Amino acid sequence: MVVMDSGLDTRRIAHPTQRIFTGRVVRFLEGYTREIAIGKPVLVAVLAAAGVGALLMLVVRAILPGSGGGARRRWKDLTKGPEYLVTPVRLRDGAGGLYEVELHGHLAQSAVHPADHVQLTLRAQRDPDLPPRIERIVNLTTGQLLTPRTATLWSHLGPPLLLQATLGILLLLGIAAWSALT
After folding, report:
1. In the predicted model, what is the mean pLDDT of the chain?
2. Nearest to 141 by CA among 121, 120, 163, 115
3. Between vectors from CA 133 to CA 152 and to CA 5, what angle results, nearest 5°?
4. Is residue 143 over pLDDT 80?
5. Dihedrals φ, ψ of 32, to 5°?
6. What is the sign of the dihedral through the CA atoms of 122, 100, 98 and 112?
7. Helical (H) or strand (E) element with 75
8. pTM of the full structure
């Protein structure tokens, strides 16, 4: 007689409703990527400020030859938001209930293992059909405090573009202050 264990639990998997959840990790499911939406008004404002900074950089390059510029990203590349990893996590509470939450971003492989006792700080997602996402993990088995990190709008735009936008804003504020004083 052959007995097949599909590994599937036939009981309903619930989403925790409380902000703090304590339980044991059952398993990590296969992860997938999700894209962060980029707001067009914010992107236009940053690019406009960076354009002013670019004008100043053109003047600097004309004065100091050999200070080359970097590669420019296209509008389409900037409006397509960064992707981050979403890993569904199955948990079991003290009463034996099975729950699912989402881990956004990356953690070290050795940070949390199945059967670890964890306390999670959760946040509901915009879509009520999605399970809550993990903001912070306290691994009670190892005593580690963990915070998963995902990509943001600012990390997507990158330091060079943000520095150029900051330079542009400072230039505009300097011109406004100078014109107010004269």
Report:
1. 82
2. 115
3. 130
4. yes
5. -145, 170
6. negative
7. helix 75-79
8. 0.64
